[in-house]
Amino acid sequence: MSLELFEQGPAVYIPYFLISLLLTMVAYGAFPLLFALIRRSIISKRKYYVLCYCFNFLLMMLFIVISKEASSGFPYLLWTWVFTLSGTKILKRRDVFNDVQYVSKLRDVCENNNSFIIARMQGDNVAPKRNSNKKKLILTIFISVIYLISIGLNVIQYLKGIEANKTISNQAERIINVGKSITTKKTEILNLKNQINNLEKEVDKINAINLKLVNEIYFYRERAAIILDDDSKRYHTYSCEELISGSYWILNIEAAEQFGLYPCPKCH
Ligand SMILES: [Zn+2]
């Protein structure tokens, strides 16, 4: 039963559990009971047990293949054991049971009883042997241990399932957070792209202004003659080293040359 089903409440998981239990009982009980009811020739207990456990094992493997879900094997062991015991009783009642152990046990009991009777007749205080009870006890302990191991494995599987669900839940939450973070980053990237577009427009404007200024500088450089207030008869450009301080005039070059001035060799 999955955790999701369990979380949906008893109105859902109790009918599911009961139907599942019924189907499991029918599946694992069909062969042992039908075989015990139909069988006509004599069969030994061991052979009957082997047949039942093998058939139901194949049935369990078929269930695993169909449902694609692992099984602890506990339902298989439990219900095969229960229905095989019931089938054994049916076989005994129908007189088609040839249990060597059963016959030998009966023989032992008869012999023990005979010995006991003879001993009692002879005056000895001897109790009849109880070997069969010991074997039953050992068998019961063995089967109980197997069932306890199966229950333990089931519990471990259930706990692992809970842990796996927690891990999946954490991973899903992390994925949601990462998704949110990606959305935030995308918004930030979009804003930065808008800023870049605006800055590129400003750069274009500044470049246009620069071009105008360069043209203006070129105009003054080619057309203007700077004349110092001295007797040198030369005209200069703005970057000339002689143009340190003092008063000056600015004329166009043609006018300066008409006044008899000539270009300074240092800056022209
Ligand atoms: Zn000069």
Q: Can you give me a brief rundown of this structure?
A:
Helices cover 74% and strands 6% of the residues. With 268 residues, it is mainly alpha-helical. A 4-stranded mixed beta sheet has the order 3-1-2-4.
Overview of this structure, please?
There is one protein chain. With 268 residues, this protein is mainly α. Among the domains are: 1-98; 222-263, no CATH class. It has seven helices and four strands; from the N terminus they run ααααααβββαβ. Strand 1 and strand 2 (234-236) form a beta hairpin. Bound molecules: zinc ion (ZN). Residues 236, 240, 242, 264, 266-267 line the site of zinc ion. Zinc ion binds at residues 236, 240, 242, 264, 266-267.
SSE map:
Blueprint lengths: L2 H5 L2 H29 L6 H23 L6 H20 L6 H23 L8 H93 E5 L5 E3 L11 E5 H6 L3 E2 L5
Parallel strand pairs: 2-4
Antiparallel strand pairs: 1-2, 1-3
Helix pairs in contact: 2-3, 2-4, 3-4
The protein binds zinc ion.
The site of zinc ion has 6 residues, from loops.
Strand order of the largest sheet: 3-1-2-4
Low-confidence stretches: none
User: How large, in whole angstroms, is the Cα Rg?
Assistant: 54 Å
Coarse shape: rod-shaped
Level of helix content?
A: over 70%
Q: State the helix count.
A: 7
Characteristic terms for this protein:
7 helices; 4-stranded mixed beta sheet; single chain; binds zinc ion; mainly alpha; 74% helix; 268 residues; rod-shaped
